[in-house]
Amino acid sequence: MDTQSLWYLENIDVNGIFCPQKLGRGDMDNHPHRQYAKGEYIYLQEDEADKIFFLTEGRVKIGTTDAASGKEITKAILGKGEVFGELAAMGEGKRRDYACTMEPTTVCILSAEDMQSLMRERSGLNLFLMRLISSRVLELEQRLTSLVFKDSRTRVMEYLYHLGQTKGRAIGFEVLVNNFLNQEEIAQLTATSRQTVNTALNDLRDKKILKFDRRRLLIHDMERLKGEIKGA
Q1: Which listed residue, 88, 111, 207, 221, has the most CB atoms within 10 A of its CB?
Q2: Which residue(s) pair with 230 in the sheet?
């Protein structure tokens, strides 16, 4: 399923809930916007989980730091139109991860109390949040399985295929992914090295399976990419 379609499950326009743009009614007073510079933390692990965020501009990295070793794990990189911090609405007391901006970012903020009130009024919103949470849990489980059983090159190719499936837009027989991640970001998400990502991307480009630049990824043939994964 295209990730963007999640925001309209059960006919719920989440953009309308967070950013109604109805100044005359005072909606913006209830849903404040906040701007962050690159590298700022929106929240940290162990912070109070009392707000939910909607990305209107920019990108945010969701990650976890192990207190004992200091090692970090990148759980997700989110872009415009995505929701995060959603567990606050489900009763999470303290944050289990952190959210850090990767570029100048603007978020729209809704308190957990307000979201819970909306959930009581609109049963479809409960379904939206459950599907959002379950989709992210499933994605993390798939990444863990890949980390345990697949080599680094295969993990990179699987991630590219996943991007095409979830965030790609069909253009004829090709799939276009805008706002493509840089190689270091892909390495973080696949627990590989930047060199491995670079080698895999260049190999797939040489085989004319895809092409890429800093802004976008164009997959010429999803089936061929899938075949590369199976043959790895």
Answers
A1: 88
A2: none
Task: Report how far residue 186's alpha carbon sits from residue 192's, in angstroms, rounded to the nearest whole number.
Answer: 8
93: helix, strand or coil? coil
How far apart CA 91 and CA 74 sit, in angstroms, is 23
Distances (CA, A) of 127 to 9, 34, 101, 195: 8, 27, 28, 41
Number of helices (H) and strands (E) in the chain: give both, helices first.
8, 12
What would the pLDDT profile of 33-47 be if each residue is shown by its tens digit?
899 999 999 999 999
* Distance, CA of 85 to CA of 57 (rounded, Å): 16
**3-state secondary structure (DSSP) of residue 122:** coil
pLDDT of 128: 79
Please report which helix (H) or strand (E) contains residue 13, including its range: none
Tens digits of residue pLDDT in 161-184: 999 998 899 999 999 999 898 999
